[in-house]
Amino acid sequence: MAIDPSTFKQPLRPSPAARAALARWRAARFGLFIHWGLYAIPAGVWRGQRVPYIGEWLMFREKIPVATYAKFAARFHPRHFDAAAIVRLAREAGQRYLVITAKHHDGFAMYDSASNPYNVVAATPWVHDPMRDLARECKKQGVTLCFYYSQDLDWHHPDGAWNTWDYDEKKKNTDRYLREKVYPQLRELLTNYGPVGLIWFDTPLTISRAQSAAIRRFVKKIQPGCLVSGRIGHGLGDYGIPRDNQMPPGRLRGDWEVCATLNHTWGFKKHDHEWKSAPNLIRTLVESASKNANYLLNIGPDADGRVPAPSVARLRAVGRWLKANGESIYGTAPSPFTHDFPWGRITAKGRTLYLHFFSKPPRRFELRGLETKVRGAVPLLAPAKKLSCTQTRDAATGVPVLQIDTAKLPFKAPVTVLKLTLAAAPVVAPGPIQEPDGVLSLLAAEARPGADRGRPQLRITPLGFTSGWKNPTDRLDWTGTVLTPGRFTAELITTHQHLEPWSGGHTARLELNGQSLRKKITRDAELDYTQKAYFPRIITRLGQVEVSQPGPLKVRLYLDQILPPPKDKPLWDDLSPLIVQVRLLPA
Ligand code: FHN
């Protein structure tokens, strides 16, 4: 069983109060995540050795006894912590909400907790509550304050999950931990700091459905407008969260939030200097919005309270882009198309489409599949320049084709926005359509699961990946549309979380137009995309096929041979093959 079901379930139907809060949160689109705690002191180093993995997991990785780890508190005196500057940074970045770790898995409360002395006021020489400062500044500067709270993992409390080196797992009583620590602390957070936008619960690894549901009810009772993140567990959140640093393929249904690091850690690590580029961050923000996801981007202040300079520089760069182009992000709806385009991403607002180009488009740019009449096209940054558009239909297939002359669209890296005004709300032709570059991309998210016998076990998760593919008679079916027939190279694209095993080695069979390609899933190449460091997309070349006529093309994928999952099962996935997509590229 997958241990984090919230990742794979559609979020709950929200109450009216949550719906209004959700609408505000959705319109914000961009938030600041802050991981700050005692782990900033060791900063990824223990007994002189660099500890791999994310910084805030150091206690767990090194199995540091509670009594030893707690000594960090005596050294916590962040002289440079400046709540006003942090909230200002969020504003400069264009981030409209802020989520800070009130208590992470190490169990240390970063606020004044009357119910538990293991906290920043009672246990440190600083004797100061940073959440009070942040609450005041958020109010003053118009940023929504939200708290991260680790409701399940707690390595400090004897009944919290996952400290097996100090405590006996068999003696743990989760209800007692919830009663003694979680509920009293949530009450404090929800009564002492004014309105709270959301509680970002995390990592529901051992908590039961009833416990998750009770925590949700508890939060809503105190602040009905406070949202609950999808990682409350069991699909009980107001919105869903993909895995860390994960970008799902295609458009999503429901509300989501992509959470991401700026380097490779959440909590400060002094040796992690692998910073993402500002263009990568801007494209990830655009891509998130195009899929109906907010983007929650993290900083990890150091033990003195300073935000690393590379983080500040990058957030400001995103902010500069947003200041000019924010109309195409804030308050937008996702793309009306279900697939990702090779040239960029689309967001929408009423009768407007925003085309975000990630590179300079060809002079005669072509968008296929838009049925709605276009009234005008202008660069978002130069609305006086009218671009000429023509709308026709492909003679052979009837696919609507919009051609835009982009001569008057100066491309400015990393993302240039073209604003299309439509005569009505956008309507698009169904199904995957061959792109002008000749590629037909078939996302698993756009496929119909089927079975030669009985009902398919295989399903498509809300994130658009296959799940539960254990049966060789299960299959995926697509009907795409080909405008330019010819010879194609067929590729299968699979994925995995970079620290977990890749499910290669199965044998895939692709059927189309009476042709069949059968091949073992091998690592032939990798796709270049923004999240490739975390979820590599692995290309298997299946062989070549011939498509002789324009029109609908039925494509069917089987897995003839499915290997048993490795014994060393990771926490999150059932390790059945994670198929992202089939692609047909002109040979
Ligand atoms: O274990 C945590 C991790 O430390 C960090 O807080 C991230 C942020 O999304 N959440 C968990 C792992 O998914």
Q: State the helicity in percent bands.
A: 10-25%
Low-confidence stretches: 1-11
Unique ligands = ligand FHN
According to DSSP, the number of beta strands is 28
Proportion in β-strands? 25-35%
Shape: globular
Structure description:
The protein is of the alpha+beta class. It is 18% helix and 27% strand. The chain has 9 helices and 28 strands. It has helices at residues 16-28, 58-61, 66-69, 83-93, 130-141, 174-191, 209-222, 278-290, 309-325; strands spanning 30-34, 45-46, 49-50, 97-103, 144-149, 198-201, 227-228, 256-260, 293-299, 344-349, 352-357, 364-368, 374-379, 389-393, 400-405, 416-422, 440-443, 448-451, 459-460, 466-467, 474-482, 486-495, 507-512, 515-520, 525-526, 537-547, 551-561, 579-586. The strands form 7 sheets. It has a 7-stranded parallel β-sheet, with helices on both faces. Strands 17-28-22-26-25 form a 5-stranded antiparallel β-sheet, with no helix packed on it. It is globular and about 75 Å long. The model is unreliable at 1-11 (pLDDT under 50). Bound molecules: ligand FHN. Ligand FHN binds at residues 54, 56-57, 202-203, 244, 259, 266.
Question: Main traits of this protein?
Answer:
587 residues; alpha+beta; 7-stranded parallel β-sheet; 5-stranded antiparallel β-sheet; 9 helices; 28 strands; globular; disordered N terminus; binds ligand FHN
